[in-house]
Amino acid sequence: MRMAPRGSNGSGGGTKLLLCLLLVACTGAAGQGLRVGFYQQSCPDAESIVRNVTWPAAAADPSLAAKLLRLFFHDCFPQGCDASVLLDGRGTEKAAGPNLSLGGLEVIDAAKAALERSCPGTVSCADAVALATRDAVSFQFGRLLWQVETGRRDSRFSDEADGTKLPNPEYVFPILRDSFARRGLGVADLVALSGAHTLGRTTCMFVSPRLYTFQGNGGVDPFIEPRYARELMGQCTSMASANRVVMDPGSEFAFDTSYYRAIKANRGVLLTDSVLTHDDEAARLVDEMQDLGKFLAAFAASIQKMGAMDVLTGSQGEIRRNCRVVNY
Ligand code: HEM
Ligand SMILES: *[C@@H]1O[C@H](CO)[C@@H](O)[C@H](O)[C@H]1NC(C)=O
Ligand SMILES: *[C@@H]1O[C@H](CO)[C@@H](O)[C@H](O)[C@H]1NC(C)=O
Questions:
Q1: Judgement on whether residues 144 and 177 belong to the same structural domain of the protein
Q2: Are the beta carbons of 1 and 24 closer than 8 angstroms?
Q3: CA 124, CA 43: separation in Å to the nearest integer?
Q4: What does the entry list as the binding residues for Ca(2+) 2 (predicted)?
Q5: How far apart are CA 226 and CA 266, in angstroms?
Q6: Contact 154, 317 (CB under 8 A)
Q7: How many domains is the chain partitioned into structurally?
Q8: Distance of alpha carbon 114 from alpha carbon 299, whole angstroms
Q9: How far is the CA of 70 from the centre of ligand 1 (A)?
Q10: What is the widest separation between alpha-carbon atoms in the chain?
Q11: Quick one: pLDDT at residue 97?
């Protein structure tokens, strides 16, 4: 069941929560009002303006694609892709525990500043994030990997409690599957989008429990391939370690299929990566994703779907002038 486009969110989260309760499934209007080329008339250069900021930044910082991809996920998953994650301040999503080490915000600021110079008050921060993410991930291919539907508007609020609605890296498969299902994302989306972990790093905080206190019993997760477990223990030396480990060893910056080979070999770094091989349907999809063409196509489809979840369109929300603060 899909919810009608929600009204102006000026009244805050209470109304939204109530609507969600009344409608049971709160998956939102799946991208009604979004379309490719939304700014064709109002800001014809919008996409190249963002790309002209993002590609040089990606050339200078090989970890940018990881940062933006995670930022986009954190924006979309809790309350829809509405740039709520970009808002500064106490009590916002950014201030929630799982936001840890969010990056790439300066690139969004730079893209938005360039957009405002050419087309003041026209292109939303939410769209800037969606476009910059696509561009940063695409940079290494020298072509755009997916089309971005645009027309999102920016929310006027952000709630720390929403940041905690992100999936926990210690979820077992059924819980993980349900957390995606609640957002209208199926197992195929879960498997394809998890492929984002072919990029980037994780703080040991999310890994050490698997090494030292697995399910509270003081041991190591028996599903981790033993040599890999020892490798991880060398990098996350205790429960208190603040190191960051590569999620897809040997291929940290390449957007490729090695993540799927790793999890098949029981070398997934987070529990939520490993458990994708503990379910028949997911495991079959993991096998399929070993093919780069299939992975790129599946990822494109699923990130478009994620990018359309619960968006604000039409006259909802606003076009923020500065992505870090709501307009006043
Ligand atoms: C399936 C549920 C997911 C869980 C439990 C999860 C959890 C995590 C955790 C714990 C980290 C490490 C954060 C840190 O310590 O810095 C991380 C990193 C990352 N996640 Fe996820 N994630 C999930 C899905 C996704 C999705 C759907 C995307 C994007 C489509 C994504 C993109 C990333 C990226 C790119 C990084 C690396 C960031 C960097 O190195 O800067 N994740 N994720
Ligand atoms: C983007 O960069 C290209 C190459 O430098 C340039 O030709 C183009 O005019 C730029 N586009 C915009 C909108 O700034
Ligand atoms: C994330 O939240 C922490 C508090 O939990 C805060 O100290 C940090 O500045 C936030 N990170 C960003 C990028 O806002």
A1: no
A2: yes
A3: 11
A4: 198, 248, 256
A5: 9
A6: yes
A7: 2
A8: 28
A9: 6
A10: 60
A11: 53
Neighbours of 296 (CB within 10 A): 20
Query: What pLDDT does 92 receive?
Result: 64
Of the residues 167, 183, 208, the one at which a domain ends: 167
Q: Residue 24: its pLDDT value, please?
A: 34
Strands 35-36 and 149-150: antiparallel
- Are 311 and 81 spatial neighbours (Cβ–Cβ below 8 Å)? yes
Those residues of the chain that have pLDDT short of 50 are 1-30
| 228 and 127 both lie in a single domain | no
d(CA 258, CA 291): 10
Q: Residue 205: which CATH number?
A: 1.10.420.10
Residue type at 71?
L
Task: Kindly state whether residues 160 and 67 are assigned to the same domain.
Answer: yes
Candidates 51, 74, 134, 156; catalytic one? 74
**Packing angle of the helix pair 125-138, 46-60 (nearest 10 deg):** 50
Q: Dihedral through CA 12, CA 18, CA 20, CA 22, nearest 10?
A: -160
- Domain residues for the domain of 189 are 173-302
Q: Tell me the per-residue pLDDT of 190-207, one tens digit each, with 9 for 90 and over.
A: 999 999 999 999 999 999
Q: What is the pLDDT of residue 100?
A: 54
Cα 96 to middle of ligand 3, angstroms:
7
Q: Which tokens go with 107?
A: 């690139």
Check pocket membership of 5 for ligand 1, CB cut-off 6 A.
no
Helix axes 105-118, 46-60, angle to 10 degrees: 150
258 close to ligand 3 (CB < 6 Angstrom): no
**Separation in Å, CA 306 to CA 98, 314, 320:** 19, 19, 22
pTM summary value: 0.88
**Residue 308: inside a domain, yes or no?**
no
